[in-house]
Amino acid sequence: GAGVSQSPSNKVTEKGKDVELRCDPISGHTALYWYRQRLGQGLEFLIYFQGNSAPDKSGLPSDRFSAERTGESVSTLTIQRTQQEDSAVYLCASSLVFSEAFFGQGTRLTVV
Amino acid sequence: AQSVTQPDIHITVSEGASLELRCNYSYGATPYLFWYVQSPGQGLQLLLKYFSGDTLVQGIKGFEAEFKRSQSSFNLRKPSVHWSDAAEYFCAVAPFSGGYNKLIFGAGTRLAVHP
């Protein structure tokens, strides 16, 4: 596609359930990022994939959070045993090396 | 570790007035620098970027930013603000060292524009 695509756009889940968020980056982009944005807050770095290198997971807030990326394509962010504090917009971005990042529209996650 | 500071959480200006949003970074070398804008309910859009060369960069929507190495700053400016500029503005840095370009954002500055 022409841009970064995220699905679902909205997700409501019950506390304690697992959720999977999907990101389709721009074709050919080697770098992929996940960020969390709580209501009225800035972008909190979660994880960064670059090509075949080991991902930078330094921003994952707990072991309930994990992410995978298949080659240089789709990425999935998984949150296990969701908590109310996980409610946020999860943003995905992709980029070429030495270039700016392009963002998707985000997935709004609400944990009830 | 690299970090980005946007000292102003909220700024209010009158339409037609000039604007300057501040951004300071902490990094051992000169990183790549970006400004993004997030309008209400919208995704993030790149306004401008600095990689090297001329320290005054022009962006979209009439914005410009100036890189000052001595001050580790990359402030965003606009000579005359329009009501449609009301949004949240984020400064970001990436080291782009050895192909590693983890992008780190500041906390953002929320701009309100009075008619």
Pick out its properties.
heterodimer, A: 112 residues, mainly beta, six-stranded mixed sheet, four-stranded antiparallel sheet, 10 strands, 46% strand, globular, B: 115 residues
What does this structure look like?
The complex is a heterodimer of chains A (112) and B (115). Chain A has 112 residues and is mostly beta strands. Helix content of chain A is 0%, strand content 46%. In chain A, strands 2, 4, 5, 8, 9 and 10 form a six-stranded mixed sheet that branches. In chain A, strands 1-3-7-6 form a four-stranded antiparallel sheet, with no helix packed on it. Chain A is globular. Chain A starts with a strand and ends with a strand. With 115 residues, chain B is mainly β. Chain B has strands at residues 3-5, 10-14, 19-21, 24-26, 32-38, 44-50, 56-58, 64-68, 73-78, 87-94, 104-105, 109-114. In chain B, the strands form three sheets. In chain B, strands 2, 5, 6, 10, 11 and 12 form a six-stranded mixed sheet that branches. A four-stranded antiparallel sheet of chain B has the order 3-9-8-7, with no helix packed on it. Chain B is globular, with a radius of gyration of 14 Å. Chain A binds chain B through residues 31, 33, 35, 41-43, 45, 48, 50-51, 53, 56, 91, 93, 95, 97-98, 100-106, and chain B through 32, 34, 36, 43-46, 49, 51, 90, 96, 99-108.
